Amino acid sequence: MPVQSMPFGNEDSMTQNRSFVSTLTGSFSTPAADNPTVAMVEAAYRALGLDARYLNCDVQPEGLADAVRGARAMGWVGFNCSLPHKVAVVEHLDRLAGSAQAIGAVNCVVREGQELVGENTDGQGFVSSLRTVVDPAGASMVLFGAGGAARAIAVESALAGVAEVTVVNRDPGRGASLVDLVERATPARARQVVWDHTYAVPAGTSIVVNSTSVGLAPHGDALIEVDLDSIGPGMLVADVIPNPAETRLLREAAERGAETLDGLGMLVEQGAIAIGLWTGAEPDRAVMRQALEDVFGA
Ligand code: NDP
Q1: Which of 24, 208, 255, 297 sits a CA distance of 20 to 30 A from 5?
Q2: How distant, in Å, are the alpha carbons of 98, 161, 167, 179 from that of 191?
Q3: Smallest Cα–Cα separation from 166: which of 132, 204, 127, 131?
């Protein structure tokens, strides 16, 4: 009798050169239960025919170091980091790619050989989505908010050619820090407006972006403090809020003749960039968007 050399020896599978080890990716955040990225990414993997998984993991701050060590030990090809780990993860990585270094935060980690490299695909995702409707070169942008999403959007938009960024934010310290970042890391001009009044968008502004959390479900009808009558034809109004896709800001802007861009596009694009970095494959954006729309009931 031949001795079976493999614990699960199966000649058929071995001669067909099949592997029972899946490509592993995922997300570390807390809370994690309402993060729909897993539905979008796994739909993309299925459509690509990849034997790949995306595990949505609830990781507490005190468990982040072990989670990253675990991902290394298990050979994960990469993972997303969401709140509250986007800055804290940096010390557990081997190096940062250019955009993550400039922005100072990581939302996507990629294994390159034995190294874990921090990337930031939020801003790149926004710019990819933006380019589907407008050329950012030479544009003037009004950006509401100065948090993590705003920092990524401001830096990548400026690197993509936006000439002037006006940061409108309640907290002056956070606003000033973003203005300083844009001026240090990009060729664009930046200025701050402290947001303690209803803000009128200056005539001649080409791109208006809400990067605050105002309008996120279940407060879908909430509106930022903007003079809606300062918005009109010739402007593109974008929102980072992915759910609902059509925020009240976008609805009001469209009614006043502005072009609009929803936050679902950004979410899909940043995910597509991450899948490309992890697997080398080009996913189907329509499949990814549909998966999110199914989740959000859009
Ligand atoms: P942060 O907590 O880092 O920043 C939140 C920002 O919103 C701050 O600038 C804050 O202002 C501002 N803000 C909050 N509430 C109000 C309010 N009532 N009026 C005015 N400003 C307000 O969050 P993030 O930047 O990480 O996320 C912001 C939003 O972006 C979230 O809703 C998130 O879902 C979305 N997002 C979407 C992505 C996509 O792919 N579509 C990707 C990443 C994020 P202040 O500094 O004055 O407190």
Answers
A1: 24
A2: 23, 16, 6, 6
A3: 204
* pTM for this entry: 0.92
Q: pLDDT by residue (tens digit) across 228-262?
A: 999 999 999 999 999 999 999 999 999 999 999 99
> And the tokens for 147?
């948090």
Question: What does the block give as tokens for 284?
Answer: 């189907």
Q: Which two tokens stand for residue 249?
A: 């800001």
What confidence tens digit (pLDDT) does each residue in 14-68 have? Answer: 556 778 999 999 999 999 999 999 999 999 999 999 999 999 999 999 999 999 9
**Is residue 86 among the annotated active site residues?**
yes
Annotated catalytic residue, options 86, 151, 248, 289: 86
Instruction: Scan for tokens 């939020």, then name that residue.
Output: 122
Widest CA span of the chain, in angstroms? 85
> Which residue's CA is minimally distant from atom 18 of ligand 1?
214
196 within 8 A of 225, measured Cβ to Cβ: no
